[in-house]
Design a protein that fits this description.
It is a single chain. This protein has about 550 residues and is of the alpha+beta class. About 20% of the residues lie in helices and about 25% in strands. The chain has one domain (about 10-140, about 145-500). The protein has ten helices and 30 strands. Strand 5 (about 50-60) and strand 6 form a beta hairpin. It is elongated, with a radius of gyration of 30 Å. The termini are far apart.
């Protein structure tokens, strides 16, 4: 008996494979992207407000894990995603929800605060201890369709957790469109042309119908219900590493956000068919950003895209086993296995027939130390997304690190190198404003809040950005140095750095200037008696001072 529902009335499309926030489909609200269809019973609107996808890639193996929250009527509904191969029951499993939130927090843009330390205490500590240098290494049988199938075939069907899964294939997009409508799927107008590339490319369609009897629904204060669905994970082999995002554009009511997290051994990923750009980082922002971090970040993101149209923005690239600063502990070996390390060919020898990892096998520590977590962020609409996203390996990336010097941070947003330690980091600085009770203060030492300060000094992360208002002015959030680094129009804010910091910065800038007027050059050699004359004058001055001192003359 087929488990494809016949009473599903509404098919809606969202876009991409992402972490983020969706929207009322049919209303002009911001949305996070998704890669397929949403299908629900009854003529009701769907709301997907938290779609998150984490992908693992190694060789030709892709592991795709996705979490979706659904708000709407508690009738049965389903999810449809294009996939390159026919998936079988052993390829699909459900996962705990907590691991997705952990990945999101680790890679999200972060806001940190640094306090300038007591300059007298800093001097004492410098004199009492040697400078410490901290080196961080980053280092089922095929079934025939019913008569009138229009070339659509049910390739496989099985049950995983609360999901009843069906894999479909089709000979042409018109037939698939007709078959779906004939089976009471209310396809939005204009779906067939967007289905065509996937059908022509031989893609299958993964349909996961949810049995509401097996799902817990959380009731919100307004009386609406949200299904707490188990995340899904499936894997497949394909030479192509891409995301089918165009389908969602059929219902796009405006720009939509796409967030992609990729975990891969020793490798960062970027897009191959769109421009790549890194988010500006290491910006010093105003104190009020603490309460409006999300608004600040979307204004910075929009500014970046305005300067780099159609680009995909890299927001994070770091070893999955470390972070600095860390909003939460780094990913554990167990979490990496949950997300798909157990089915990557390079680690297969470390697992037994039951899929359990041998803790004494070298694979155990390789899993912990080899993965790189990359976060990519795009924002697009019907006029800016022409094709699905294709990914490629990229070199190491660093940026968004270091402590302030002379009231400023390293202005370089990103540098390509051998390792990955890049993050979107934004800093609020608190300069020392207390009395200075020593002769030789040591300024520009930064750390946590002074004793008794009402702050835990933990990083704040920006999540669910699609719901943030996008009408704030970027210039209203940034300081003098960030205004200059971003090359914003208009008058920059006043430089509010204290006098000692400004003087130190001016001194450093002067020291960096090339020296002029040196008389001791190859082109102008010193006369034979020149050096002796200079030494003689110095000696004479020394003798004169000694005579004056001996005579008591000041």
């Amino acid at each position: 008996m087929s488990i494809i529902p016949n009473n599903l009335k509404l098919l809606t499309l969202a876009t991409s494979m992402a972490v983020g926030v969706g929207a009322w489909l049919g209303a002009a609200q911001p949305a996070e992207g998704f890669c397929g269809f949403y299908v629900a019973g009854a003529d009701a609107k769907l709301f997907n407000d938290a779609t998150m996808v984490v992908m693992m890639r190694d060789g030709q193996r892709t592991v795709l894990s996705m979490q979706n929250d659904y708000q709407g009527p508690p009738e049965d509904f389903a999810l449809v995603i294009p996939v390159p191969v026919v998936l079988q029951e052993g390829d699909v499993k459900t996962l705990p929800r907590e691991v997705f939130d952990h990945v999101d927090k680790l890679a999200a843009p972060r806001l940190v605060e640094y306090w300038e330390q007591d300059p007298c205490e800093a001097r004492r500590q410098q004199q009492q201890a040697r400078r410490r240098v901290h080196n961080v290494r980053y280092d089922e049988a095929e079934m025939s369709a019913a008569p009138g199938d229009h070339g659509v075939t049910i390739e496989a069907e099985f049950v995983v957790g609360e999901y009843e899964v069906v894999i479909l294939s089709a000979q042409d997009s018109t037939g698939l469109d007709t078959w779906l409508r004939g089976n009471e799927y209310n396809i939005p107008a204009g779906a067939e042309p967007l289905l065509a590339p996937y059908v022509e490319g031989g893609m299958k369609f993964f349909v996961a119908k949810v049995d509401s009897q097996k799902v817990q629904f959380q009731t919100k204060p307004d009386g609406s219900k949200r299904a707490m669905l188990s995340p899904l994970r499936f894997h497949y082999d394909s030479p192509d590493f891409s995301l089918p995002v165009r389908l969602g554009l059929i219902n796009a009511q405006g720009p939509q956000d796409l967030l992609v997290h990729v975990l891969a051994p020793n490798t960062r990923y970027q897009v191959a068919n769109y421009p790549n750009v890194t988010i500006p980082t290491n910006l010093i922002v105003k104190d009020e950003v603490r309460e409006r971090f999300g608004q600040f970040y979307v204004s910075l993101f929009d500014h970046t895209l305005a300067q780099n149209p159609k680009a995909v923005v890299t927001e994070y690239a770091w070893s999955a086993s470390s972070c600095d600063p860390c909003p939460e502990p780094a990913l554990s070996t167990e979490e990496l296995i949950v997300l798909g390390a157990d089915v990557l060919p390079r680690y297969a020898e470390g697992f037994d027939e039951q899929g359990q990892l041998d803790p004494d096998h070298e694979v155990s520590w390789k899993i912990q130390g080899e993965f790189v977590l990359t976060r990519l962020h795009a924002r697009y609409g019907k006029d800016t997304l022409g094709e699905d996203l294709v990914f490629e390996q990229a070199g190491g990336l660093t940026g968004g690190r270091g402590m302030p010097r002379n009231g400023a941070l390293d202005p370089k947003s990103a540098e390509v190198g051998d390792s990955n330690s890049f993050q979107g980091r934004y800093v609020i600085l608190h300069y020392w404003d207390q009395a200075v009770q020593c002769l030789w203060p040591l300024w520009d030492q930064w750390g946590g809040p002074p004793g008794g300060h009402d702050s835990s000094n933990e990083p704040t992360v920006a999540q669910q950005l699609a719901f943030e208002p996008r009408n704030a002015k970027l210039a209203s959030f940034v300081t003098h140095s960030a205004h200059a680094a971003l090359q914003l129009a208009g008058e920059p804010p006043l430089d509010d750095r204290p006098r000692h910091t400004v003087k130190a910065a001016e001194k450093a800038a002067k020291a960096a200037e090339p020296r002029k007027g040196c008389s001791c050059s190859v082109e102008a050699p010193v006369a034979p008696g020149g050096v002796a004359g200079v030494l003689g004058l110095g000696l004479l001055g020394l003798i004169t001072r000694r005579r004056r001192n001996n005579a008591g003359t000041p």
